[in-house]
Amino acid sequence: MTDDDERLLTELLEGKHRALARVISKIENHSPGYRDLVSQLHAHTGDADVIGITGSPGAGKSTLVDKLAKTYRDRGHTVGVIAIDPSSPFTGGAVLGDRIRMASNVGDMDVFFRSMSARGSLGGLSTATTDAVRALDAFGKDKIIIETVGAGQNEIDIVKTADTVAVLVPPGSGDDIQMLKAGILEIADVFVVNKADKDGADMTVTELREMIMVASDAPDTGHHGPDAMADYDLDLDGTGEDDWTPPIVETVATDAAGVDDLLETFDDHVSWLAETGELQNSARKRYAEEIRTLLREDTAELLADELEARGGLEAYVDAVVAKESDPYTIADEVLEPFETCLGELRAEGRATVGNDGQPN
């Protein structure tokens, strides 16, 4: 790392918010040296609870996050908030980045708020968001809250970063319940019926309970998806010590009603994760997915550079259109030097990983 980045890292670990903001900016902008910074941060992570807040637009996510942060501060916890905004098609920046949020926490230096661009990531979460969470964790924030774009089923990506996922459902939202049935159920650790003082709240709670009961009979649902079902099943009777049934919590975020109950539920879920070993299992799954994502992104960048060096993609497209070649042949041709190089490295015994996790 450069001397400037070394100082930045030291200041972040010393708890200086200006350094934290600069590091996250470097991460979001993919500035030179940001990967080395993130690599150095990793050893200092693992102490924060990461909570994902997701749900349909208009469910009251921003207001609830504001009240969650305020209540955490009242309990003596430090808080980091990352709000994922839609990406501008022109700049890649956060369209809503200047919106006024966190009104209850203005001036509180122990609440760090950052609005970040989704940059087209399917679930509204980008690699930069994962790295920003790592920076907040290394900084020493006790609680990290991620608020996602209300983008429907694609919000399943939030699971890759959060320990606990709360899905907000506004009252009388029959369409939202149908959306949940279509695929969001498995990511919810907690369902929150916000705006519970509105008409239709009781009906929404009833529909959610029925949905959870139906899901208990499905072979491919469970804690954060089908992979977890090998070890944990939904237990609506509450008789299984290793089971977690998503509770339904009613809140009115505008006046913080139900927020204390919601935080207690978050704490219960974290305790369950630790007691059952699912916390470690989930971390391993997240790291595996992060490695896959980085490999995909880095490989795509290498291939883009190779295509550019060969004169760009258009010439290949012209060949396919003219029936002089086909997409498979072109892909094989572009990949051939990479495959040859990897084959030579394996032959030399250099493309393997040792017990220390480093390439031999």
From TrEMBL:
Cross-referenced PANTHER family: LAO_AO TRANSPORT SYSTEM ATPASE (PTHR43087:SF1), LYSINE/ARGININE/ORNITHINE TRANSPORT SYSTEM KINASE (PTHR43087)
Question: Which Gene3D superfamilies does the annotation name?
Answer: P-loop containing nucleotide triphosphate hydrolases (3.40.50.300)
What GO MF annotations does this protein's record show? GTP binding; GTPase activity; kinase activity
Taxonomic lineage: Archaea, Methanobacteriati, Methanobacteriota, Stenosarchaea group, Halobacteria
Highest rank taxon of the organism: Archaea
NCBIfam families for the chain: lao
UniProt xrefs under InterPro entries: GTPase/Isobutyryl-CoA_mutase (IPR052040), GTPase_ArgK (IPR005129), P-loop_NTPase (IPR027417)
Report what the protein is called.
Periplasmic protein kinase ArgK or related GTPase of G3E family
Q: What is the originating organism of this protein?
A: Natrarchaeobaculum sulfurireducens
* Translocase found in the keyword field: no
- Keyword Nucleotide-binding in record: yes
Q: Of which family is this protein a member?
A: Belongs to the SIMIBI class G3E GTPase family. ArgK/MeaB subfamily.
Question: Which UniProt keywords are present, listed alphabetically?
Answer: Chaperone, GTP-binding, Hydrolase, Kinase, Nucleotide-binding, Transferase
